[in-house]
Inverse folding.
């Protein structure tokens, strides 16, 4: 790879806020040592041997150190992995640390050798390859640093340190050192003293018992040594010897270990550590031309460094000779000739006579850090082959320079905003410098480790404090307050720049010769140097750009004539850059930021330059400068041979897409496993992230400035084109093609530069969760923002850093692998891969491309505000991914609670669905080719997204838009109508929801919508509206849905049955209405416990009865719902194998006939009567068994009713169900006896019974009379007794007898039912005499039955009297009392009869009772009556026979 023409500084600002591990080491030094000694501040670095091998833990890994007085700072960094515990700060109290720290690396250990003024130390650490042996390097991980386990005990190990005891007074004082570790592990230290001697200290190998040795090397006479040893330096007067060592290093050569020194007398002396003798003295002035006058010149800053690629067989080293009027680098090589060492001069390089801070010699390159006479830092490098006799062989390194003289504030912008942006994004101030400035203002310490976000607030607070302090006591006009703010901010920036100069002072170089990584170490922090490409070098190098520099990427110009034109064009651009004022440059930047067309701004700048050159400027100097500019431009442009070609080549080089924006899309490619392992961790650390983002920011800024100056130049060329003899074709091409393209690139780099400086926000957890839900709704499962990648630890990182930490870094690594820059055996260096990596990263964020990866990533990381701003910057000029940007902008508006703006963006984005990769492949994800179909699918995705934000009105609007563009046969139309229906329903627009539902062409979706429609309106209790909708062709579905829900939901929580009833009644379908209420009543009785269930059941039955009454009597019936027996129904499940018999034949499914039970109106009335009776029972006696018990049959109900005294209801049920009234009459008779207890006692007391019986009866009746007549009135009130009452007062007992009499008269008026017998039997069984009305009624309907009852109950006297009355009635005396219509007479057609069997039994019973005269009389009377009856019957019989004969004769005679 060709050597870069120049480099540029890349500061690692995140290293300024390291958290140090502080350790204090005991050196046993006297306290006066540090006070009296002055040791040079130094720094250096070391790259691991395997740092170029990417598949190792030490890849791209290095250590750098910084010493300052008694402090050593050690930092280990890796560009591939994050390291933990990688910073340590060692304190050696009262013992200054000498320059010359050395790091030695073996296969198992890393050894750091440190020398102090009073001691030497060997620090041994485990090698990185040993620390991470068990961790696979397949993903970016945090690895432990070699310093992670460092401790004071390890440092103070006696075998790894040695104190320099100098008995008596201080004889010598070391001020620099060098060290080395031999192959045997012995540590050798060489400490140069101010008296010209070298102390050589050797520590035995680690783990081997040995005694440290100390030797002093000095080339002097015996008297000089005695004088130096005996006389103190204060008395001697000479502070440093003439042969004092200024710089030294140790290197093995052959079988010896040599110490190479450059001394104050310009001599190179080489000492052997084997025999402790000086083996070579070489006069360095021999390599200096015209050195005769330098023999006695003082050495200003002699220094020497060996080449990093030297080994034990060969050595090259460079010596820097610094004098007052000149300086020179001499490259020397020691050789062994005739047993003696000699130094051969290899090359000489002559830099400017600046003050050298540090230099490095490796890979035939010299890198040097200088401090100029103005106090500025300069870093240069050169190759040995390029070494000449002037400064032209040195190549520049462009460092960051701060210019705080005048920071322009754009109009209408708050100075605070402008200065904060400058301080934290553009100035390059370190956080330490900012924190120190804030601390001085606030008079309190501010820690730089708080981070940028906190420091911003501290800076603003400090400036506000200073402004208010300056304006105390009076009110300022707005202009004066504005100027006061500017003054305070300028002062703050000036102070920051002063602190930055202090902390940014270079103290050493870091050069890793294995990877090509170069950096320089500052007092605080470190910066790396990156190579510039040919375009950057052309723009930055004012007088050092040559044709050979244009052969590198991205110009690749090997045409000599074209190279000359490009160099001339570069001169013109640099002239514009120097001529345009800072105000114009800043104004152009902010105008572009405000979306102003850059063509107009650049044209105004060009016009301004012309006006100044024409003499309209205010000062002659400005006019002279502008005129000179135009003359120079005309001269250069006239020298261009092919200006259009040169301009086209230059524009092509700054086009990242190289004219093929479609080729920048990231396509997945297959890589083998080994290559994948390498790609997973290359440049994956946080430090690499900072470096890559900083380089991209620098590249964007430089190319933005290049495009800016080029655009101004093009307008100037356009104006002076005829003067410089440009062809009309060239001018037209300039106007039509080159100027618009330059303006487009200018805006593109402006947006990239803004991205590099925009701070990434840290989203909250709920925001991230919402983002994930949005991606799920959009069905973007492989989003760039969701997969690998983590948020920055603090919110101080930029958007580019966030991108590199995530998918951006992965894509860069894959691009490097696919482009061939990485292979499994690759050992390419840092410098070889850095520019390709930056190019890959730039392609990812280049806006002029079909790839949408970066915006998608920002969307996934919830960077909504930044993404809005980025889309604004691209709007109006970037024609790529316009619709995709509108889509993500809509998502940003949604998350910013601006849904109306979001919908507008979504509609604009729909136009590019068929053309843009993101919308087509990531969002729509279909192979459909029709544009309208793609737009409809896109709108469906957007509708799902809007549904996440609860904006139903916008969902409806967007769905209607999709319907308006959809094809007639688009399969997504039903989905759109479903969306409209759903959200109309959500908004309560029931009519619109109904219209959308009926308009849905898909019957399945229509039924689903109908189900949801019914459920929602039920939940809202909008049943009237639900019932009144016409439901054209949907009535059956409505009934089916409501019935299904009614049967599947608990009755206590729904009213679906009632709605169905109203639905059928509203449509005049009374039979279905009755069926619904009957089913409701059945379920209510079974499922609803308590009295409410019974009441609900009764109401349902009543409603069903009413409905059936409105139906034609022929159709006044319903089908009783029967629960399905699952065991009897064979259900074929999906995938279920058929049943087979023993022969393997498939068995046919058994057909079961469903049982159907028809319920008529009469059956319904019966069920209602039972439920109503049960309710009445509960009202009388709220027994839990009645409330929760099972269904009661009619006999059971009657039994309970008569027990409760509800005789009217019981009689109604008996009548309805054709049941006998026996239980009613028996129970009512018992109640009558109970209520008439007092009269019964009076009656029973007349019997000739013993006193004991009368007392028992009295006690029983007394105990049952606790409530007097209250109980009787209670049950009587439950029956209809209004027709039994008279105007006079009546007792309850009397009313009960009347009620019994009325029932008997109504239900057994003819005596055929036998209820007279029932009542009489009950009374007589209880020993209660029959009341007169019952006797009269019984005699009238069935006197014989009454006679038999008397006989059965041994009431012979009553039976005798009844029998005699009955005989008299038969004979015609009082027949009306026995219900006889005729008497015993021959002419009476109706026959009469007597119960002879009963009379015989009565006579026999009376005859047997001979003990009482009464019965004897009754016997004779009855017997006489009977005989009389028999004689009469005989006479009547004869008379009837005579009459019959007469009638027969008459008939025969006729």
């Amino acid at each position: 790879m060709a050597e870069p023409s120049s480099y540029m500084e890349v500061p690692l600002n995140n290293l300024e806020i390291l958290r140090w591990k502080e350790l204090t080491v005991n050196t046993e030094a006297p306290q006066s040592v540090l006070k009296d000694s002055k040791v040079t501040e130094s720094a250096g670095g070391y790259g691991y041997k395997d740092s170029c091998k990417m598949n190792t833990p030490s890849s791209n890994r290095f250590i750098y150190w910084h010493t300052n007085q008694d402090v050593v700072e050690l930092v280990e960094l890796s560009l591939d992995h994050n390291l933990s515990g990688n910073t340590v700060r060692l304190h050696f109290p009262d013992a200054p640390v000498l320059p010359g720290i050395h790091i030695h690396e073996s296969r198992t250990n890393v050894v750091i050798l440190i020398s102090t003024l009073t001691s030497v130390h060997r620090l041994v650490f485990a090698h990185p390859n040993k620390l991470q042996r068990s961790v696979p390097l397949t993903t970016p991980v945090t690895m432990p640093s070699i310093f992670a386990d460092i401790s004071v005990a390890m440092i103070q190990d006696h075998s790894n340190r040695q104190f320099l005891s100098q008995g008596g007074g201080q004889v010598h004082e070391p001020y620099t050192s060098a060290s080395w570790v031999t192959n045997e592990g012995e540590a050798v230290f060489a400490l140069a003293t101010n008296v010209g001697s070298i102390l050589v200290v050797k520590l035995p190998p680690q783990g081997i018992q040995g005694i440290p040795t100390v030797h002093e090397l000095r080339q002097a006479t015996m008297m000089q040594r005695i004088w130096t040893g005996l006389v103190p330096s204060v008395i001697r007067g000479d502070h440093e010897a003439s042969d004092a060592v200024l710089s030294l290093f140790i290197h093995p050569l052959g079988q010896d270990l040599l110490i190479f020194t450059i001394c104050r007398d310009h001599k190179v002396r080489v000492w052997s550590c084997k025999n402790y003798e000086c083996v070579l003295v070489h006069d360095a002035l021999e390599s200096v031309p015209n050195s005769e006058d330098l023999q006695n010149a003082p050495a200003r800053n002699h220094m020497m460094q060996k080449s990093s690629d030297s080994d034990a067989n060969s050595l090259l080293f460079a010596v820097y000779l610094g004098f007052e009027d000149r300086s020179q680098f001499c490259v020397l090589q020691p050789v062994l000739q005739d047993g003696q060492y000699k130094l051969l001069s290899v090359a000489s390089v002559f830099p400017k006579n600046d003050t050298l801070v540090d230099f490095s010699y490796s890979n035939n390159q010299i890198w040097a850090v200088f401090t100029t006479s103005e106090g500025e830092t300069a870093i240069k490098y050169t190759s040995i082959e390029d070494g000449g006799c002037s400064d032209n062989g040195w190549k520049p390194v462009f460092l960051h320079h701060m210019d705080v003289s005048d920071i322009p504030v754009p109009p209408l912008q708050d100075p605070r905003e402008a200065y904060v942006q400058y301080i934290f994004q553009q100035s390059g101030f370190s956080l330490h410098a900012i924190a120190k400035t804030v601390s001085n203002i606030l008079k309190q310490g501010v820690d730089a480790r708080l981070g940028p976000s906190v420091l911003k607030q501290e800076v603003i607070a400090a400036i506000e404090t200073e402004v208010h302090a300056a304006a105390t006591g009076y009110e300022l006009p707005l202009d004066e307050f504005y100027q006061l703010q500017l003054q305070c901010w300028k002062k703050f920036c000036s102070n920051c720049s002063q602190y930055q100069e202090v902390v940014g002072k270079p103290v050493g170089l870091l050069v890793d010769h294995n990877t090509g990584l170069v950096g320089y170490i500052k007092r605080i922090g470190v910066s790396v140097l990156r190579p510039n490409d040919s375009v950057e070098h052309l723009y930055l190098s004012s007088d050092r750009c040559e044709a050979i520099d244009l052969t590198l990427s991205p110009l690749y110009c090997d045409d000599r004539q074209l190279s000359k034109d490009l160099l001339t064009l570069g001169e013109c651009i640099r002239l514009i850059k120097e001529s345009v004022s800072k105000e114009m440059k800043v104004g152009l930047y902010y105008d572009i930021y405000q979306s102003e067309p850059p063509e107009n701004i650049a044209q105004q700048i060009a016009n301004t330059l012309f006006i100044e050159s024409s003499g309209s400027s205010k000062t002659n100097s400005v006019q002279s400068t502008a005129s000179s500019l135009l003359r120079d431009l005309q001269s250069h442009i006239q020298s261009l041979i092919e200006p259009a070609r040169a301009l086209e080549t230059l524009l092509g080089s700054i086009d990242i897409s190289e004219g093929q924006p479609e080729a920048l899309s990231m396509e997945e490619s297959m890589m083998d496993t080994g290559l994948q392992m390498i790609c997973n961790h290359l440049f994956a650390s946080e430090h690499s992230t900072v470096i890559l983002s900083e380089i991209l920011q620098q590249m964007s800024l430089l190319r933005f400035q290049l495009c800016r100056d080029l655009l101004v130049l093009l307008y100037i060329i356009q104006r002076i084109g005829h003067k410089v003899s440009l062809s009309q074709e060239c001018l037209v091409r300039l106007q039509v093609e080159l100027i618009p393209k330059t303006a487009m690139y200018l805006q593109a780099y402006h947006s990239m530069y803004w991205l590099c400086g925009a701070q990434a926000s840290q989203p909250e957890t709920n925001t991230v969760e919402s983002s994930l839900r949005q991606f799920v709704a959009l069905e973007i499962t492989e989003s760039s923002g969701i997969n690998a990648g983590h948020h920055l630890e603090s919110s101080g990182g930029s958007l580019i850093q966030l991108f590199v930490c995530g998918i951006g870094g992965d894509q860069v690594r894959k691009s490097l692998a696919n482009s061939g820059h990485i292979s499994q055996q690759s050992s390419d260096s840092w410098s070889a891969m850095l520019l390709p990596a930056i190019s890959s990263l730039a392609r990812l964020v280049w806006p002029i491309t079909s790839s949408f990866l970066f915006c998608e990533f920002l969307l996934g990381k919830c960077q909504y505000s930044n993404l809005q701003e980025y889309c604004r910057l691209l709007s109006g000029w970037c024609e790529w991914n316009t619709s995709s940007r509108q889509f993500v902008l809509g998502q940003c508006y949604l998350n910013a609670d601006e849904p109306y703006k979001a919908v507008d963006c979504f509609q604009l984005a729909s136009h590019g669905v068929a053309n843009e990769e993101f919308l087509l492949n990531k969002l729509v994800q279909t192979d459909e080719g029709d544009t309208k179909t793609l737009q409809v699918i896109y709108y469906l995705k957007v509708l799902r997204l809007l549904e996440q934000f609860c904006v139903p009105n916008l969902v409806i609007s967007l769905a209607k838009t999709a319907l308006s563009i959809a094809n007639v046969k688009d399969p997504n139309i039903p989905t759109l109508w479903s969306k409209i229906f759903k959200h109309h329903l959500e908004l309560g627009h029931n009519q619109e929801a109904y219209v959308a539902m009926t308009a849905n062409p898909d019957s399945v979706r229509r039924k689903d919508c109908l189900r949801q429609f019914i459920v929602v309106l039920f939940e809202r209790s909008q049943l009237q509206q639900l019932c009144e909708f016409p439901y054209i062709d949907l009535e059956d579905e409505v009934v089916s849905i409501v019935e299904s829900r009614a049967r599947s939901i608990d009755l206590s929580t729904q009213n679906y049955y009632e709605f169905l009833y109203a639905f059928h009644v509203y449509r005049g379908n009374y039979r279905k209405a009755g069926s619904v209420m009957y089913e409701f009543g059945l379920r209510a009785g079974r499922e609803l416990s308590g009295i409410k269930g019974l009441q609900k059941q009764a109401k349902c039955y009543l409603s069903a009865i009413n409905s059936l009454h409105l139906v034609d009597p022929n159709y006044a019936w319903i089908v009783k719902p029967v629960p399905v027996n699952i065991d009897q129904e064979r259900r074929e499940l999906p995938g279920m194998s058929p049943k087979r018999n023993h022969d393997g034949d498939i068995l046919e499914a058994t057909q079961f006939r469903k049982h159907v039970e028809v319920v008529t109106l009469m059956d319904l009335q019966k069920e209602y009567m039972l439920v109503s009776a049960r309710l009445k029972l509960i009202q009388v006696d709220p027994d839990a068994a009645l409330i929760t018990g099972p269904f009661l049959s009619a006999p059971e109900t009657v039994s309970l009713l008569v027990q409760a005294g509800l005789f009217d209801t019981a009689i109604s049920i008996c009548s309805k169900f054709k049941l006998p009234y026996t239980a009613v009459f028996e129970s009512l008779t018992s109640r009558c006896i109970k209520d008439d207890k007092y009269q019964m006692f009076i009656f029973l007391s007349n019997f000739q019974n013993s006193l004991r019986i009368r007392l028992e009866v009295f006690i029983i009746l007394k105990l049952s009379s606790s409530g007097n007549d209250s109980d009787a009135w209670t049950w009587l009130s439950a029956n209809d007794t209004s027709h039994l009452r008279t105007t006079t007062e009546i007792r309850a007992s009397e009313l009960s007898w009347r009620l019994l009499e009325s029932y008997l008269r109504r239900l057994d008026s003819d005596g055929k039912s036998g209820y007279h017998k029932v009542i009489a039997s009950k009374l007589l069984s209880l020993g209660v005499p029959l009341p007169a009305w019952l006797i009269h009624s019984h005699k009238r309907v069935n006197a014989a039955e009454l006679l038999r009852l008397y006989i059965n109950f041994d009431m012979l006297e009553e039976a005798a009297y009844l029998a005699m009355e009955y005989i008299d009635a038969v004979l015609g005396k009082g027949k009306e009392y026995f219900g006889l219509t005729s008497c015993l007479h021959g002419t009476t057609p109706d026959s009469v009869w007597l119960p002879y069997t009963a009379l015989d039994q009565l006579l026999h019973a009376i005859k047997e009772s001979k003990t009482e005269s009464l019965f004897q009389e009754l016997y004779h009377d009855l017997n006489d009556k009977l005989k009389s009856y028999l004689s009469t019957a005989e006479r009547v019989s004869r008379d009837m026979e005579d009459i019959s004969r007469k009638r027969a004769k008459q008939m025969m005679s006729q």
Remarks:
- The radius of gyration is 60 Å.
- The longest helix spans residues 1413-1453.
- The mean pLDDT is 83.
- The chain has 51 helices and 33 strands.
